Amino acid sequence: MEIFGSTFDDSVFEESRAKPTVVALSSYNAKFCEAEWFWESIDTEDILEKQKIFKFRADMAYRRKNFQEALNAYTTCLSYVPDGNLAIRRDIMEGMARCCCHLGKRVEALEITETLKNEASNTCHLTGLLHLTANVHERFGDLRGQVTCLQQLCSLHPYHQWHWMKLADSYLHLLQSLSTPSGSSPLQQGDDSQTEEQLKEERDGVWLKACMCFVRARLVLRALKGQQSSFVLQNSERALQKADEALRCLEPKDTTLQLVSEVMSEDLIPERMREDNQDGESLAGLSLKDFEDRWWNRLVQTGVLKKDGPKLPSVKT
């Protein structure tokens, strides 16, 4: 009886097979191009080459702030992009949307972002698109539209401190706009006394949401500080100071601040924070809780507005 492992495979003692002869590659000579060669007249029928030329022209024009020229070049470039090349198509359309933004073409910019939204296939695409759409709204002073995009970003990346800081800042600006005599609101219709009461309720709701977001940002920043160093840590410390100063200006009561902190820290579990990485995840099976359902309604259920704050606003902000 053979002992397991006591015998050898004959192939061990066979001569090694001759390795295939490596054929030396011919020398490679890099292509030298004149500076800004893509501005020269086009003398090629190659579709890919035309695509490159107009893409370079558009990017250079955008860098020089010639936004109409850049938009024209991006539009021409898009006509040469095959339908299946989604990455290049998305890059060009984002450039077109930014050009429209600078040119004051709000409707066109939002139409492009809507097209990109329908074509998004994973969370990376959606994240970039939400950033772009938020920038469009910010460019044209649409704070409510910007807030909606930032809420979606916070729902998509609930442990991203900078999304929460940006959302908190947007709520703060919205609160300031509602607090000025000329502050506009879609509620300003009908009876003046009723409108004033509704506007006050809306301001109260925006105030609490600003507090909520600054508290959340502060909690996430503190949770991540132990993993940071160098300039990243310095940025976090500056953001913490900014959040603290904002909360001092907003002046929530201690009981309100405690309740908000409890609600906004419920899902800040280290294990969950490490596992919740959705970069590149397909949107097909992605299920996100609505911002209002996940945080705001949970906060309202604590009764914080009845105990320590103003009345609950009758509109969503």
Automatic annotation (TrEMBL):
Listed Pfam families: DUF5588
Domain of life (superkingdom): Eukaryota
SUPFAM superfamilies: TPR-like (SSF48452)
InterPro entries registered for this protein in UniProt: DUF5588, TPR-like_helical_dom_sf
Protein name, as recorded: Zgc:101716
Organism: Salmo trutta (Brown trout)
